[in-house]
Structures are given as C-alpha cells and as structure tokens.
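A reminder from the course coordinator: this example appears on the midterm review sheet, so study it carefully.

Given structure:
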C-alpha cells in the first residue's frame, strides 16, 4: 500500500487535499526510498467554512492515519515542525 492516498472517496463527502503526503522538497522525498514517506497536517482544515467542516476534515485525517497504521506504516521518530517520516514496517498490513 502506498502512503499516497486520495480523500475524494470518503463516505461522508468530506474532501481533504493530498497535502498530508506532500513536501516542498522533492529531493528530500526521493531520498526517503520506496518504503518511507513524509506526512504533514498543516493544511488539513483548508477550505472549511464552519467548525463542523473543520472537525470533519480533522476526523477524516485521523481515520487516514489509523488506516496507514493498520496497513503497516509507523512514524520513525516524533513529528517535528509538522513533518513526520513514516516507514512501512509490515508490508503485509
């Protein structure tokens, strides 16, 4: 399973940007390798027009992180400055 996901198919219609898995430094991302990726939450509430919208976006983000963990992904170190490095430690999920 790739750490790059789309939020377009969420059951509740909540849409999030794919920025959770993006970085401004593509070279840094390339150096991570196939079994590692970066996660970010900086823009996870962008576009929310109400507190309920913001909460729904955060809940969708939380579910996506749980799904990643269930698929064998783990943080390699504590998140710092909104950047977390994840690694697939269990390819079988």
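Designed residues:
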């Amino acid at each position: 399973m790739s750490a790059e996901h789309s939020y377009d198919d969420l059951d509740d219609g909540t849409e999030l940007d794919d920025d959770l898995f993006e970085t401004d430094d593509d070279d840094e991302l390339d150096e991570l390798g196939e079994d590692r990726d970066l996660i970010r939450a900086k823009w996870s509430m962008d576009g929310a027009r109400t507190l309920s919208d913001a909460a729904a976006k955060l809940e969708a983000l939380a579910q996506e992180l749980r799904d990643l963990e269930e698929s064998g992904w783990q943080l390699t170190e504590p998140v710092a400055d909104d950047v977390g490095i994840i690694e697939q430690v269990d390819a079988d999920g």
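Helices lie at 26-32, 51-70. Residues 1-11 have pLDDT under 50 and may be disordered.
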